[in-house]
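Page 37, continued from 36.
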């Protein structure tokens, strides 16, 4: 697996690292506001889950790359090209959500991302079943992330739907 596997596992982490470097002060304060969804995980849990999922997804892409013979041959164009597109959309979601706070755009990109990951799993399945299965936790997390994003987006449009912080009474 070394060094190609390590590169495939590390590559997806570049996006979150850049987002973290570009927007650290605003990121945690915004996500941990008192009006967030009550079931929304803390900021550090979000980062831990995303990091784990990106690493697993990178390993899955390595399995596909290896099973198709490695290198940059033509059979790799669709499976890894689709992976590259979804990875760039995933990084865009992080930028839109954490740095730009553009929740509507982040939600649209999440829906597009969900379709891309499902397509990727379907294309990867005949190549490497484990690689396709490793995408299932990512799909589950995209569902959670879309729910969180929708809730925050809805509350930003309709403040009366916002959950009340503990100790506050609504009128």
């Amino acid at each position: 697996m070394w060094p190609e596997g390590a590169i495939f596992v590390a590559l997806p982490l570049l996006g979150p690292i850049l987002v973290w470097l570009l927007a650290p002060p605003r990121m945690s304060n915004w996500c941990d506001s008192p009006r967030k969804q009550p079931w929304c995980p803390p900021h550090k849990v979000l980062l831990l889950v995303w990091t784990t999922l990106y690493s697993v997804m990178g390993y899955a892409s390595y399995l596909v790359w290896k099973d198709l013979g490695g290198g940059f041959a033509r059979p790799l164009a669709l499976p890894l090209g689709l992976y590259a597109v979804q990875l760039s959309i995933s990084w865009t979601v992080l930028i839109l959500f954490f740095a730009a706070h553009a929740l509507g755009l982040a939600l649209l990109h999440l829906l597009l991302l969900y379709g891309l990951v499902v397509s990727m799993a379907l294309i990867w399945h005949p190549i490497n079943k484990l690689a396709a299965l490793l995408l299932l936790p990512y799909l589950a997390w995209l569902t959670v992330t879309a729910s969180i994003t929708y809730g925050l987006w809805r509350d930003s449009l309709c403040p009366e739907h916002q959950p009340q912080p503990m100790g506050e009474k609504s009128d």
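The helical segments are 4-10, 14-22, 24-31, 43-67, 77-99, 103-124, 129-133, 136-157. Flag for discussion at group meeting. The chain has a mean pLDDT of 85.
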